[in-house]
Amino acid sequence: MKVLFRFEFKTPKNKKMKTAIVCGAGGFIGGHLVKRLKEEGYWVRGVDLKQHEFGMDYADDFVLGDLRDPRLCSSLFDREIDEVYQLAADMGGAGYIFTGEHDAVVMHNSATINLNMVEAARLAKAGKIFYSSSACMYPEYNQMDPDNPKCSEDSAYPAMPDSEYGWEKLFSERLYLSYRRNWGMEVRIARFHNIFGPQGTWTGGREKAPAALCRKVAEADNPGEIEIWGDGLQTRSFLYIDECVEAVRRLMESDFSGPVNIGSEEMVTINTLAKMIAEIAGKEIRLRHVEGPQGVRGRNSDNTLIYEKLGWKPTQSLREGLEMTYSWIARQVEAAKYTP
């Protein structure tokens, strides 16, 4: 078993304190989720290959290790665990997912993590387990029209995701649902739609569109120019990180298993997204369209089911989330200028 290092700060003294494991705690959503759970009074064990690069290390116990090792996964359950949040995956933005160059490692790594974690949780008789799926599992044929994509939960089949990343997400959904049927596990599944915000990857090739565009605008002159992959008419919706964490917590506290969409219904083109960021930055930016991976032509969250089951819907606009995100990324860009 390969455990790179382990930090343990304190253990729960109150036996009634809820306990949770967050897989992928060194990542963007995982870091924010750990913070939220701590604010709610949980004892939290985080686990990841790396610590959070932006200091979101709020876990009581942080395990630096590889979830592809089943022995490591089993070792996480050395005490009673009420909730498991499985967010760990080999993933990235369009530049990583849609080129086809990383298909084998994406499928192998993510599937192995899910196989290991759900079995370890079952054997340990853990409480509820949350799995973070993705809107990338929806059929490509329902997302060809950028103005009218179909992403309701019941549209998942016949299956035809546009990437191997999406196929692995669909497989793992069925894996967790099989464990629910056969072993009675309390499973919760959400399909994330483009989550963004501060303390996330903003450079290096794995960043998502909002972070990439914020970085490009922050680095551009005024007036200036940035590149957009494709014609920029492909559509998406984007959900701010705090909204995502709130929806995850509501799902986990409910009796509803899912799968259910967690996203925004405020659909925009990538051109509109870029222009909105430029306005926030107060810059005059031209868009230059170049060849590049784009994914499906249109995707938007359908929140009918989550509102019906959980009474949840986003509370803030895309622009409000972008203002906070751009401010944070602009500071990172400025700081990077002075980093050797």
What does this structure look like?
The protein is of the alpha/beta class. The chain has two domains: 217 residues, NAD(P)-binding Rossmann-like Domain (Rossmann fold), CATH 3.40.50.720; 83 residues, UDP-galactose 4-epimerase, domain 1 (Alpha-Beta Complex). It has ten helices and 14 strands. The strands form four sheets. An eight-stranded mixed β-sheet has the order 1-4-3-2-5-6-7-12, sandwiched between helices. Helix 6 crosses helix 8, helix 6 packs across helix 10 and helix 8 packs across helix 10. The protein is globular, with a radius of gyration of 20 Å. The two termini are 36 Å apart. 48% of the residues are buried. The mean pLDDT is 93.
User: Which radius of gyration do the C-alpha atoms yield?
Assistant: 20 Å
- In whole angstroms, the N-to-C terminal distance is 36 Å
**Relative strand content:** 15-25%
* Average pLDDT figure: 93
Structural category is alpha/beta
Query: What is the global morphology?
Result: globular
The CATH architecture term of the largest domain is: 3-Layer(aba) Sandwich
CATH class of the largest domain: Alpha Beta
CATH topology of the largest domain: Rossmann fold
Count the beta strands: 14
Q: Spans of 5+ residues with little confidence (pLDDT < 50)? A: none
Superfamily (CATH H level) name of the largest domain: NAD(P)-binding Rossmann-like Domain
Overall tally of structural domains: 2
Strand order in the sheet with the most strands = 1-4-3-2-5-6-7-12
